[in-house]
Amino acid sequence: MRRLAILALLLPGLARAACPSVPPAAAAPDEALPSARPGGTLSLLVVGSASTAAPGGYPEALAAALRAARPGLRLRLDLRGGRGEDAAQGLARLRQALSGARYDEVVWQLGTVDAVLGARPEDFAETVDAGIAAARAHGAAVVLIDPQFSRFLRANVDLDPYVSVLEAAALEPGVVLFPRLAVTTHWAEADGLDPGHAPAAAVASVARRVQVCVGRALARFLLAAPGG
Fold first, then answer.
1. In whole angstroms, what is the distance from residue 171 CA to residue 142 CA?
2. What is the C-alpha to C-alpha distance for residues 100 and 86, in angstroms, rounded to an integer?
3. DSSP 25
4. What gap in Å lies between CA 22 and CA 102, rounded to an integer?
5. What is residue 196's predicted lDDT score, i.e. its pLDDT?
6. Average pLDDT of span 20-28
7. I want to staple 20 with a disulfide (CB 3.0 to 4.6 A). Which of 1, 43, 53, 191 is the partner?
8. What pTM was estimated for this model as a whole?
9. 52 Cβ partners below 8 Å, 6+ apart?
10. Closest of 198, 190, 180, 221 to residue 57, by C-alpha
C-alpha cells in the first residue's frame, strides 16, 4: 500500500515531466521537407502499426507540437494503420490514401512487425521501395520511422536487417529517416525512460510518456529540416 501511495504522488509529475534530449542523429534531417510555416498549410499521411493507430500514440503529440510551434498552421493529419500490420499492409493503406487525397509528407512507421514475423529483409526492402515510389509519384516527401526500443524485442528479435533497409532507403532523394530506435534506446539507457523497467503500476504511464516524447521529438525533427 505504501508503494502505491508513493506512485500516486509521482505519476502526475511524470506526466508533466519534460522529455529527454535526443541523440544528435535525431536532431534534424539532411533533406529539405515541405514547410510548416505559421498560418500555412501542411498535410501529413501517417501510416503504421500499433503506435501509430492506437489512441495515445505519437501522432497526437506530433500534431500538438507542430501546432504549438507554428501558430495558425492549418494541419491535416490522416492516420492509417492498425495493430499487427506489417509493411505490405501499410503499403496497401498508403496507396489507397494517396489515390484519394494529396499530401505534403508521408510518415511511415514500419519494421517492427516484419521483424517479429521473420519477413525476408529483401521482401521488406522491396515493399519500402514501392511505398517510396508511390509517395514520390504523388509529389510527397517521405519520412520513415524505424522500430521503437523494447527490451523484449532486443532479447528475441533481430531488428538490425530491417533498420539497415530503412537507413539505405533514407539515402534516396526526398526520403529521411527518424531514428526512433536510437532515440528510445538512448532514453531507456541514459534517462531511465523505459516501460520495461517501470513498476507494474507505472507501466502504462511511462509507455504513454514515451509516445508523447516520440511525437514531440518527431515534430522538432521535421521542423528542423532545411526549409522546415
1. 11
2. 22
3. G
4. 31
5. 85
6. 92
7. 191
8. 0.90
9. 46, 58, 59, 79, 81, 109
10. 180
Cα gap 108→146, rounded to integer Å? 9
* pLDDT tens digits, one per residue of 97-139: 999 999 999 999 999 999 999 999 999 999 999 999 999 999 9
Q: Which long-range contacts (CB under 8 A, 24 or more apart) does 169-174 make?
A: 169/125, 169/128, 169/129, 169/132, 169/144, 170/144, 172/132, 173/31, 174/31, 174/132, 174/136, 174/141, 174/142
Q: Cell numbers for 173, please give them.
A: 532523394
| Per-residue pLDDT band at 54 (split at 50, 70, 90) | confident
Decide if pLDDT at 167 tops 70.
yes
- Cell numbers given for 94: 498508403
4 pLDDT exceeds 80? no
Contact of 108 with 52, CB cutoff 8 Å:
no
3-state DSSP call for residue 136? helix
SS3 46: strand
DSSP letters, 52-121, are HHSTT-HHHHHHHHHHHHSTT-EEEEEEEE-TT--HHHHHHHHHHHHHH---SEEEEE-SHHHHHHT--H
Q: How far apart are CA 181 and CA 46, in angstroms?
A: 18
State the Cα–Cα distance between residues 33 and 178, nearest whole angstrom: 13
